[in-house]
């Protein structure tokens, strides 16, 4: 079913809760509806807004926003303990995780409680606690507006990387993701190596699927603000990847600095949250916006802020980190 809204306030449709407006917002359910819409309307300007959990609107949007609402979760194949599931873009990511855990299916548990919808997951290859969406995604299906056709890309074709994919690069602005096919497993494969996960799982009684989900949820709740209470978009910045020599120089001055290996030879990933924290900005507040007091990677809207205020704070954070550590940190959030 299509729902068409004119001159709509976006405050309840973006997790930062900024009060920008869009000329039009259209919710669609099926691929047929989506294709018919594009053929009929020939939008001059359009964008996709899914859960609105990774965007910051800094101005009103003078075009049509498309929002997928398909709630389908179809179990399509089960073989040798592996299960393939096709999921509509409009399904809430954490509802999918809960669905899988209830059925004893492994693969999504470390990605519990990540806010957002399934259709957005492949775009920035969402990740947490040692897992990424790309570990389970088999295929991504989308409408390609330029060729006016449905297309499917296999995992290897999606060019997934750390918070990266083809959908943020070559295909940016020309596709609408409608469905994601994932592969899960009945076989246990606990991943407990990241941070406090193992300790929390032990406290709950051992590495069962339910306990891992519970542990991740409780760690996230203790650090990350609830968007329903405090406007935010999760990590506002990406963790910077730097040359090994740069990391080594910093480690001389700050031996306790967290650093992680990367898939790229000679490169090291640093923790932007730690850098911001050490720059003295954790809990820093400027009017209606601030750096979250429990996780410095997250910028928050204390109420009524507009996008420009958040951007001004983000620039200040970037400048301070640059000044103190010589490191440039990029935004993870999509700024519009
Ligand atoms: N740290 C601090 N102070 C802070 C924040 C972090 O000292 O204010 C230190 C931590 O103690 C830790 C290190 O920095 O040693 C890394 O922190 P954490 O483990 O909390 O994770 P992160 O690197 O800050 C990333 C993701 C999160 C994801 C967590 C857990 C990015 C940009 N962020 O954060 O993703 O939940 O790991 O896996 O990669 C998101 O993308 O929106 C998001 C929340």
SSE class: alpha+beta
How far the N terminus sits from the C terminus, by CA atoms, comes to 28 Å
Strands of the biggest beta sheet: in what spatial order?
Answer: 6-7-12-10-11
Helix content: 10-25%
- Uncertain stretches: none
Shape: globular
The name of the CATH topology of the largest domain is: Uridine Diphospho-n-acetylenolpyruvylglucosamine Reductase, domain 3
Count of DSSP strands: 20
Count of discrete domains? 3
Order of helices and strands: EEHEEEEEHEEEEEHHEEHEEHEEEHE
CATH class of the largest domain: Alpha Beta
Give me the Rg, rounded: 20 Å
Q: What would you say the CATH architecture of the largest domain is?
A: 2-Layer Sandwich
Oligomer: single chain
Number of helices: 7
Bound small-molecule species: uridine-diphosphate-2(N-acetylglucosaminyl) butyric acid
Topology, element by element:
Elements: E1 3-9, E2 21-28, H1 31-41, E3 46-48, E4 55-56, E5 61-68, E6 73-79, E7 82-88, H2 93-102, E8 127-128, E9 131-132, E10 137-144, E11 149-154, E12 175-185, H3 197-204, H4 209-223, E13 231-235, E14 241-243, H5 244-253, E15 259-261, E16 267-270, H6 272-278, E17 285-286, E18 289-291, E19 298-301, H7 307-325, E20 334-335
Parallel strand pairs: 2-5, 3-5, 4-20
Antiparallel strand pairs: 1-2, 6-7, 7-12, 8-9, 10-11, 10-12, 13-19, 14-16, 15-16, 17-18, 18-19
Helix pairs in contact: 3-4
The structure holds uridine-diphosphate-2(N-acetylglucosaminyl) butyric acid.
Uridine-diphosphate-2(N-acetylglucosaminyl) butyric acid (EPU) is lined by residues 128-129, 194-195, 224, 234-235, 238-239, 258, 271, 273-274, 277, 282, 295-297, 332.
């Amino acid at each position: 079913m299509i729902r068409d809204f004119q001159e709509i306030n976006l405050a309840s449709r973006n997790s930062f809760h900024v009060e920008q407006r869009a000329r039009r917002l259209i919710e669609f359910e099926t691929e047929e509806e989506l294709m018919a819409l594009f053929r009929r309307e020939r939008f001059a300007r359009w964008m996709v807004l899914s859960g609105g959990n990774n965007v910051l609107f800094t101005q009103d949007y003078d075009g049509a926003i498309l929002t997928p609402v398909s709630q389908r979760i179809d179990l399509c194949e089960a073989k040798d303990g592996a299960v393939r599931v096709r999921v509509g873009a409009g399904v809430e990511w954490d509802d999918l995780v809960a669905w899988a855990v209830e059925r004893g299916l492994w693969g999504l548990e470390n990605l519990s409680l990540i806010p957002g919808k399934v259709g957005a997951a492949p775009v920035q290859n969402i990740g947490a606690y040692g897992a990424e969406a790309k570990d389970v995604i088999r295929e991504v299906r989308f409408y390609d507006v330029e060729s006016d056709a449905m297309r499917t890309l296999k995992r290897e074709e999606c060019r997934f990387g750390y918070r990266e994919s083809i959908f943020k690069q070559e295909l940016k602005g020309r596709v609408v993701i409608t469905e994601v096919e994932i592969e899960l497993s009945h076989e246990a494969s606990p991943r407990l190596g990241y941070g406090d996960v193992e300790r929390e799982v032990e406290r709950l009684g051992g590495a069962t699927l339910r306990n891992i989900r519970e542990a991740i949820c409780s760690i996230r709740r203790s650090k990350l603000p609830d968007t329903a209470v405090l406007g935010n978009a999760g990590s506002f910045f990406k963790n910077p990847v730097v040359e090994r020599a740069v990391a080594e120089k910093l480690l001389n001055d700050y031996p306790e600095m967290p650093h992680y290996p990367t898939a790229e030879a000679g490169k090291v990933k640093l923790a932007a949250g730690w850098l911001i924290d050490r720059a003295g900005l954790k809990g820093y507040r400027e009017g209606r916006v601030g750096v979250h007091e429990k996780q410095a990677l997250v910028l928050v809207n204390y109420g009524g802020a507009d996008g420009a205020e958040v951007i001004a704070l983000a620039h200040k954070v970037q400048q301070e980190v640059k000044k103190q550590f010589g490191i440039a940190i990029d935004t993870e959030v999509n700024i519009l």
